[in-house]
Amino acid sequence: MRRTAFNVMLVTVSLTLAGCAPKRPPEVGAYRWVDERTALADLRARAAALKTLSAECGITLTRADGESVQFDGALVLENPNHVRLRAWKFNRAVFDLTLNDDGLWVMTLDDPNRREQVLPATLRAADFLRELSLFTGGFFTQEPPPKTEVRGGTLLLTRETTHGLLHCEADRATLTPRRFYSEAQGAGEGRFELKLSKYREVNGIPWALRLEAVSEMGRVAVEQRDVEINGELAPQAFVPPKRAERRP
Question: What residue ranges define each of the domains in the chain, with the CATH number in brackets?
Fold first, then answer.
């Protein structure tokens, strides 16, 4: 009798815990391929539908020599060109990066010694903000539209800019961008790559929960959680801190 009651209690507790467990966003469904023109139109529609985004995240900055450091962080985005990334370690702010209509703003630690150690990685993360701002919407929605080419299971999109060629590799099976990369035109032009993975559907829009930017300076990886798309952002979401400095 006691064993039966105990088993019932276990089942009840298990069901309760399962009901309280956070629901994972659904995987991105299969895309019904028609042709390149239709796929581009659908990519443009998806990009235009993403107005705002907010997420908690883990941030890993890795230097070119392989040394890395991890932070807790928060990411907010508002299309077309507003992005903010904040990072902290042991509840202490490490850097705060804001990209808005006035440019890129960077705030780092007060401690001069630690600031010089963190600053190079911080500036790499700032480059990541610029790249993310460009690719979340403008790559698909600006006129003229990018050129398209089917290569097996990949849809390659290419856009010409004053800084060189920008490419996007999208997975045809789900119509999700997986990799953006640049081709520099002249000497001194840096190349970069933005990888997108772990796609989930959030509020009806496919979104990559892992973003990884790679360049000669190292890499920046952002793992997001508790993502909210097209929610309301705070009025001061893209106002940089008073100590922030504007970067070219």
Answer: 28-247 (2.50.20.10)
- A 10 A CB-CB count for 177 gives 25
Quote the CA–CA distance of 160 and 146 in Å, as a whole number.
Answer: 8
What pTM, to 2 d.p., does this model score?
0.81
Residues 6+ apart with CB under 8 A from 232: 52
3-state DSSP call for residue 38? helix
Distance CA 105, CA 97 (A): 6
Tell me how far apart the alpha carbons of residues 170 and 37 are, in angstroms, rounded to a whole number: 14
pLDDT digit string, tens, across residues 44-63:
999 999 999 999 999 998 87
Decide: helix, strand or coil at residue 46: helix
Q: What is the 3-state secondary structure (H, E, C) of 166-184?
A: EEEEEECCCCEEEEEEEEE
